[in-house]
Amino acid sequence: MSNTIRVTVWNENRHEQTNEQVRRIYPEGIHHAIAVPLRQEQFEVRTATLDEPEHGLPEEVLNTTDVLIWWGHQAHDEVSDETVERVQKRVLEGMGLIVLHSGHFSKIFKKLMGTTCDLKWREANEKERLWVVNPAHPIVQGIDQYIELESEEMYGEFFDIPQPEELIFVSWFEGGEVFRSGCTYTRGRGKVFYFRPGHETYPTYYHPEILKVISNAVRWAAPVNGPSLVFGNAKPLEVIKNKVETVENK
Amino acid sequence: MSNTIRVTVWNENRHEQTNEQVRRIYPEGIHHAIAVPLRQEQFEVRTATLDEPEHGLPEEVLNTTDVLIWWGHQAHDEVSDETVERVQKRVLEGMGLIVLHSGHFSKIFKKLMGTTCDLKWREANEKERLWVVNPAHPIVQGIDQYIELESEEMYGEFFDIPQPEELIFVSWFEGGEVFRSGCTYTRGRGKVFYFRPGHETYPTYYHPEILKVISNAVRWAAPVNGPSLVFGNAKPLEVIKNKVETVENK
Amino acid sequence: MSNTIRVTVWNENRHEQTNEQVRRIYPEGIHHAIAVPLRQEQFEVRTATLDEPEHGLPEEVLNTTDVLIWWGHQAHDEVSDETVERVQKRVLEGMGLIVLHSGHFSKIFKKLMGTTCDLKWREANEKERLWVVNPAHPIVQGIDQYIELESEEMYGEFFDIPQPEELIFVSWFEGGEVFRSGCTYTRGRGKVFYFRPGHETYPTYYHPEILKVISNAVRWAAPVNGPSLVFGNAKPLEVIKNKVETVENK
Amino acid sequence: MSNTIRVTVWNENRHEQTNEQVRRIYPEGIHHAIAVPLRQEQFEVRTATLDEPEHGLPEEVLNTTDVLIWWGHQAHDEVSDETVERVQKRVLEGMGLIVLHSGHFSKIFKKLMGTTCDLKWREANEKERLWVVNPAHPIVQGIDQYIELESEEMYGEFFDIPQPEELIFVSWFEGGEVFRSGCTYTRGRGKVFYFRPGHETYPTYYHPEILKVISNAVRWAAPVNGPSLVFGNAKPLEVIKNKVETVENK
């Protein structure tokens, strides 16, 4: 059995078909731009997109995926509920999930968070600076004090998510807002990382430090061979003095 | 405008109809047993049950509820999805939610947690001892080092919930298990408290310290008049140097 | 016995003696500016300063203080270790502690955090905007989406503190930095709130929303009458089958 | 440069000199028992003990240590304050620290926690069962649902530590107590893991799952090459409109 981490990069892949500006930046799709550098690491990388059968995520793909990366934006509702439930089940079983940018509004992220995942936004080509607030975390391996992006969409607080278990990045925006832009969660045996940057009209997924964060996150989110989850009726491990009469006689 | 906290105690109220042992302990229902002592505090208390129209939780009730207490067990699936969504919406807007015992498997709790909320269990009349692990928390006001229950159903780890924001109680069980039995979360503007004890065949909701925890939790979970949540497209608060050309020329 | 919260506002009170600009803003000292509005709430408020005997914090003052507010800057080292230990002991017993601005470098805050509590700073009269990231928290009662301060000293990340238990505010600074500017912790039975704003050369402690946050924090940090802390050798609560021979025979 | 993790196992090594029972179990010292299996992993392992010069932890040793393991009990006070400060400094710079059992009362652990780190205890050869409550964590790689120790010293709540960032294990004790027995923290760039088991009169450090947890923890706690920590006066990254007059004219 190999130890290679198996990554599936999922992309909605719609803007690339309809928007000339996006196509120029990502001619083979955002999924391709993300997959190429991950292949240069020691990962085994596949891609999947919305318009493939079962959105490219049939059971056999999910069952052989260690970490799933998710980018979606305008067609969240077209992802079938069955697929979302299949992905959730796999996350709870241990598959890592990295949710990028507008994926904050995907069905799967909202389902795992239990909140609206809503936020403020603005498309104004403004500067973003992602400050590291957790320098001990493996996700910031090789990253400097901050990552600067000359032009990005703004996402601003309040970001309606549960309090992150670990807050890794906080973004500064030129227009006056801040954002918790790198957040980790565990759900069951699975790890979830939300990472903010990556609006489709900017070349964010060519930025070396953004790619470094994503590949660090893949390693961090890969499944751990911990205890299997056992639920349901359980025999006692110790002798219990029967106290049925206590209730009966009350 | 009054500052009285308005509590609604929701109970499935089915065991009480069909199980003689339960009826003897809670002749007017678990909701009644919980509501009576809360009325002796300064709360305004209503009850609601599954078989009432709209499960007793129409919009006008939820809109005038500050804290909702939830007990359910065998009929979780009979709670309509519309009701669950209405409750979730109100929690995110600020309504407190206290989920008791087998409510861990209610639709609303699972929806707010994003996990299966599954666990181990055993009905063996065994002793439970709830140890306080957060003595600074308002929920343990007036509580001693531990609460002892002579006979309870066992719930054991792994409890498939997101890591609690605050862990208040950890239970010891006679049969050899432990359980994170008092857990807090925030979801949007709302606070959620899960509290383990209260199997229907035991007189747990007459225990003075259990009632004390519930009334403390009501005060803790009552809505805070914090900022309203503003989402969506946002005008800049500061001047942004327009950088449209950066992208265009790439 | 009264339920009035007893607050002691501690101030180094040195800048006010030596810096004309500071004296003009706070002619009776920063402690006075903070104490006056707190007295208008239902708190019982005393002040204490560095140059008083025992720094104004003898045992009888601490023992009758529910919440201690701390402002210090240039003379942290002049606070005696005995005083710091007395304050720490009282916090662990339940006294609330609110540490303001440059108090991040006080002996007591560093002792309770276990880290350097170091940060970046700049005095450039720049704009600060404190965004609420936890709208459910009692500390933001009555506060809007953000608090704007026209001129403040900048504090920037990385702020070397343990990950806050609750992150309440994140600051945006005109010069390009962000800062976790409202952070809660529990230590023993005591609650700690760090709140960033309040450089001595700005009239920050006259700002109504800053004062509102401080008075909210006083209520939040007031001691809870939870279990007393019992440590040391403990008799078993259950019968233990003696297994001395297991070790002996190994 | 090698990627081998460099571990230093520190042991007080006093019980082994004076207590026949301990010597029989750990004839070459607890440090030796822990070091041997770690050497069989890919770690570079040294040991150090209290009675060596500078307690075996001079600057050159600490500077070449990636993860320090700490066992101490009866002679915590004999560890010099200089050594404690040196260790703390190295942790904040990135060195991992694993604190075992009675090390909860070591100077270094108390300094990093900011609390008394006190607890309940009992030596009664009783059964301990460590339940995994975070099955996604790398520290439980290869571990089953729980670890059972036939005979151990009891440690009971309330354990006076800051709320763990991640709670990994909760112990059940035969005598009726529970304990948060696997807890993680970050301090600066360093990671800290407290792991409860290991009283000197029991062969706990020969138990394969206990050793597995320790070696997992070494990997988890090893330094991450994240951003270096930059503190102090910082030049603005963006233009600040000078507002000196605002304050001057007040």
Automatic annotation (TrEMBL), chains A, B, C, D:
InterPro entries: Class_I_gatase-like, ThuA-like, Trehalose_catabolism_ThuA_prok. Residues 6-221 form the ThuA-like domain. Signal peptide: none annotated. Pfam families: ThuA (PF06283). It comes from the Bacteria. This is ThuA domain-containing protein.
